[in-house]
Task: structure prediction
Amino acid sequence: AMVKKSTLEEVPVMDGGVPVDMVSGRDGDEDIAYRIIAGSDNNKDQTYFLCQLTQQQLSKALFPIGDIVKPEVRRLAAEAGLPSADKKDSQGICFVGKVDLPVFLQQKLTAKDGEVVEIFSDFYGTLEGYPGYGSHQGGDIHTVEPEANGLPTKEVTFSTGDLSLENMGRDDLENALASLSRVYRYKKSDGKVIGKHFGAQFFTIGQRKGLNIGGHKESIFVIDTNIDDNIIYVGEGHHHPGLLRKALRIANDEVHWIREDLKMEDGQVRNYNVRIRYRQPLQKAKLYQMKDYMYFVFEEHQRGISAGQFTVWYDESGEMVGSGVIGL
Result:
């Protein structure tokens, strides 16, 4: 990661819609903003973990090697005679020591036997009119040129498989976005019990390892967890409908703008590059700021969107401008 301090005078107008309004704080008589930029080494970029930093914190932060790649760092360390030059890359979580995360969690959390319920792909055909999953995710939001506030108000086509609404105003659009991002909460009766597990709290959506259930042609993956009932719901195959979603939402009180001057107002719509997990390639998405939620509608279906994890968004220059906790 890199931190750059910019003033209105220092920031040139750039192509690609990169914002030039840098007013987010005061430094004497100077309007300034601290910008956190993705590091030059894509494999080592840590901006995802810095997504909740504030302007005040960034004003005191330095990342001196953010603009060089790891092999170059090792070369410089070797020239300086530093022992870290040949040290293996860390594969774990630095603050828990030399222990794998699953083992660490098992040491801290109490195991409790529960049931594994398989949800079959044909189940989604019974969810008529529900756009959040599977074949019901077939399209995008198409709009005419937006009004001044960024919100289309006259002619809108919303198409996601079986859901097709036209000529939506503000209320209809918000209802459609809420439906598209809605998370279906499975019931035990939706599927079939196929095994046992040692605690729903140890699993996350998209996880394959640790299930220890055979008898399937393809691998099975966690598609939902119910901590209260201690049930894990799984589906067979990397492209199981329950793993794929077109949209997510973040409650407004969970949205954090690193660049406060770029904060979206109610009704605004913008395009950003979005990441829903560490090291995921950036995904193109349209962000809709509504009364209670910010909605993210992706160009491509996203696999394993998990409530409680962070979503971060970047502009075309690689600047991370905001983050938020994925909601249900």
User: Anything to note?
Assistant: The chain is about 10% helix and 30% strand.
